[in-house]
Amino acid sequence: MFPQFKNHINNNLAFLNGKKLLVAFSGGLDSVVLAHLCVGNKMEIALAHCNFNLRGEESDGDEDFVRQLGSKLGISVFVEHFETKQFAEDQRVSVQMAARELRYQWFEELLKIEGFDFVLTAHHADDSLETFIINLSRGTGIEGLSGIPEVNGNLVRPLLEFSREEILAYADANEIKWREDSSNAENKYLRNKIRHEIVPKLKELHPSMLQNFQNTQKHLQQTDALATNHLLEVKHKLFQYEEDQIKIKIGDLLELKPLDAYLYGLLNPYGFTEWNDVKHLLHAMSGKQVFSKTHGLLKNRDVLILSKLNNRVQQEFPVYLDGTPAESPVTLKLEPVRSMQNPEKKTIFLDKEKLNFPLVLRNWEKGDYFYPFGMKGKKKLSKFFKDEKLDLISKEKQWLLCSNDEIVWVVGKRADERFKVEDSTQEIIKITQLT
Amino acid sequence: MFPQFKNHINNNLAFLNGKKLLVAFSGGLDSVVLAHLCVGNKMEIALAHCNFNLRGEESDGDEDFVRQLGSKLGISVFVEHFETKQFAEDQRVSVQMAARELRYQWFEELLKIEGFDFVLTAHHADDSLETFIINLSRGTGIEGLSGIPEVNGNLVRPLLEFSREEILAYADANEIKWREDSSNAENKYLRNKIRHEIVPKLKELHPSMLQNFQNTQKHLQQTDALATNHLLEVKHKLFQYEEDQIKIKIGDLLELKPLDAYLYGLLNPYGFTEWNDVKHLLHAMSGKQVFSKTHGLLKNRDVLILSKLNNRVQQEFPVYLDGTPAESPVTLKLEPVRSMQNPEKKTIFLDKEKLNFPLVLRNWEKGDYFYPFGMKGKKKLSKFFKDEKLDLISKEKQWLLCSNDEIVWVVGKRADERFKVEDSTQEIIKITQLT
C-alpha cells in the first residue's frame, strides 16, 4: 500500500534516510498516517506531542492515545504540557498563534537537546488548497497563495503532495485509528466549510485539479523568488542603512516603474498597507509620516526615512507666539486671552510667565514623564499611554508640547499641572490644536 | 442609481471623458448595463455587435435587439457577420478562440476606420473571479491568476471593479432588458457551475471577499511586474541575439538561483513546459534538443540555442560505415548483408555502390524532396509530412539520412526509390534505427 510515499521519499527526500526524525504528532488522521508510513518505510522516527491543555479530558485522551501508539510501534514519544491560554494572554496573541509559537519553540529545543535532524509535519495538498482559499477570501499577496515549501530548513512535509483522500484511503485499508480533534472551532468551521462545500466542487472542475493546483503553487513560488531577487537588487541600490534607520532617495524611487509595484514590494515587508498614503508621502511636505503597525516612514526633504516604531526618528518643531511653522505636523494657534472662557475640546490655557519661548513640539521618548493636570505628583508618560489604551500607532502619532524640555501638553490629551493658570497669573495664553 | 460608476469614471478613468468610445456589445446583461451607464453619464458611445452566426435565429434575434436598443438610446450601432465555424476550421482553433480573434480584429478596424479612441468591454469583478478559478483548476502561473487590467492600451473595462450583483441590481431597478445568451455551452457550463455553486460559498467565507480578491489580484499584478522587470534584466545580460536564434551560455544559467525559477521565467514565454527535460538538457550531450510547441532548445557544447521551430538550427552528423557517432541524435546500425532477410520495422536495405560515405544525418529544410520508395516520381517532403499528418514537433524531430545531399531515408518512415537494392546490386547495406 501507498508505494507513492516510498517513491517520493527516495526520489525527492532521500536526504531523510538514516537521519533522526521527529514527527510532529497531534494524533489526528494525517500525523498518524505519516507515523505509520515512516515506520513502514524503516525511517528512524520519534513522536512529539503537544498537550495544549485546551480541551480538558479530551487533551489527556489524545496524550494517552499517543503514548499507546508509541509503545505499539516501538518508538519514543515526547510529550509536553503547555499553559497555552496563559501564554496567549501574556503575549497578547490568539490562542492559535500561541499554540503555534509554543509548538515550534519546543520542537527547536528537542532538535537541539535530543539530537534530531529534522521535524516532519503531516501537511498535505488539501491543507495547502484550504489555506490558499482562506487567504484568498481574506485578501493576500503572492506569499499567501504560493503555499508552504516541502522542505524549509529542518522542517520537512513529506505528505505535501498527497491528497487527504489518499491519506484516508491508506488509513482505511490498514485499519489505522486516529483521534478526531474538536479544538480550534472557529478555524475548524472555516476549514470544514471549505473542505466539504468548496473543495469538492473545485475538484469537479478538472480531473487533476489538485495536481494542477500544486503545479500552480510551484510556479507562484518561482515567480515570487524572481521578484524577491529583484527587490534585493533594488534595495541594494536604493536603501542606505544608517544605524536604526534606512534612507531612501525619493528621486530614485520615482524612477522605478511601475511605481506601485515597487512601493508594494519594498515596503510591504515593513507592514505598510495604505498605499495611497505612501504615494502621497512622496510629494508631501517634509515632516509628514505614514505608519504601519511596526514601522514609520518619514518624509524628510528629498529622502524617506524608514525606521522601527520603537526607534523612530526624533523630530522637533519650534512653536512661536504666533503659532506653528508650516512644516509642523500639528497646527497650533496661540492667542493671549483675558480669561479661560470658551474652552474647546483641544484647548489649554497656560500661564505665559511659566513658559520659555519658542516652545518645542517633539515626539515622546523613553523616560518621559509629566505632572498630569489635576493630579498630585508625576506620572510616566508610558503609564499614561497605557491607561489611555493607546495603541502603538497612536503613541507614535502623539506629539508633546514642551518648554525647556518639560512637557506642557500631551497635545490634545492632557495638560501639565506645572504650567496651569493660577490666581497669580498675569498673562494667559490659550493654545488650540487646529489640526 | 449607481453613482459609483460616475465616481469611478471621474476618479480613475477621467481620460475617457470627451473621447469617442465603442462599446463591445453582445446584448447580454453586462454590456447592456454598461451602455446604459455610459449614456446616463453622457459619454459618447456607439455599439459594436458581432453576429457570429453560431445560434441561427437566436443570433439574429440578438442583432435585432441591439439595433432597437441603439435607436432607443439614439446611438450608432455597428454590426458585423462572421463565418466563425469556417474561420475556426481554417485556423485550426476552437470556435471560442476564433470568435475572440474575429471580434478583436474587427474592433481594431473600427477604431481605425471610424476614428474611435477606445473600446469598452463589460467585464466585471465576478468575471475575473470565475476566470481565476477556471485557470486555477487547469493549472496556471501568476499570469493566469493576476487577472486582466482595467486599462490595456485602447481597451478599457470600466465595470471591472463592480460585482455582478451590483450590475444586476442596477438593471432591475431601471427595468433594463437584456438577451440571455445560450451560446458557448461548454464554457458556459463551467462558468455556471462556478457562478452558482462555488462563488457564493467563497463569498460566505468573508464579508468583503470580492473586494479582497481584487486587492489580491492587484498585488499579484505588482509582483508579476517585478518578476518581469527582473527577467528583462537577466535576459539583457544572458541572451545573445543572433539572427533567428538566441544563444545562452549554460555556465551563466547555472549561476542563477533558484535555477528552476529562472528556467521557468526565461523559457516559459517560449512555450516550454517540460522542466525536467530542460534541466537535463543543461548537462546533456551536445546535439540534444527539447521542444515546445513553437520553439526548440538545442544544447550545443557550452551554450543553449533557442530558436523558433520554423527557423531552427540546422544540424548535420556524419554516418560512417561503422555507424553513427556518440553525439548523433539517432543511433543507426550499418551492416553488410547477403540478402534482404529479417527486415525489421525501422530497417532499410540499400545498394552500397549508390551511396557516398560518410552519409549525413540532417534536419529537413524548405524545398527538400525525395523519391518515395515504390512510387514513381518525386515528392516534396513538406507534402509527405502533411500526408503523414506529422505535427510541428514531429517534423522537427524528423531526421533525414542523405548521400550527397540526396535523401536516402526519411529515417524510420520512408526509403528513397533511388538507392534501393536491385538485381544488379553487388553489396547490400542494412541500416537499422536503434534509437
UniProtKB/TrEMBL annotation, chains A, B:
GO biological process, one term: tRNA modification
Domain of life: Bacteria
SUPFAM superfamilies: Adenine nucleotide alpha hydrolases-like, PheT/TilS domain
A single GO cellular-component term on record: cytoplasm
Keyword Repeat included in the entry's annotation: no
Reactions catalysed, as given in the entry: cytidine(34) in tRNA(Ile2) + L-lysine + ATP = lysidine(34) in tRNA(Ile2) + AMP + diphosphate + H(+)
Transmembrane segment boundaries: none
Gene3D superfamilies reported for this sequence: HUPs
Sorted UniProt keywords: ATP-binding, Cytoplasm, Ligase, Nucleotide-binding, tRNA processing
Domain notes: The N-terminal region contains the highly conserved SGGXDS motif, predicted to be a P-loop motif involved in ATP binding.
Similarity comment: Belongs to the tRNA(Ile)-lysidine synthase family.
HAMAP family for this protein: tRNA_Ile_lys_synt (MF_01161)
Function noted in UniProt: Ligates lysine onto the cytidine present at position 34 of the AUA codon-specific tRNA(Ile) that contains the anticodon CAU, in an ATP-dependent manner. Cytidine is converted to lysidine, thus changing the amino acid specificity of the tRNA from methionine to isoleucine.
Protein's name in the database: tRNA(Ile)-lysidine synthase
Source organism (scientific name): Flagellimonas zhangzhouensis
Gene name in the database record: tilS
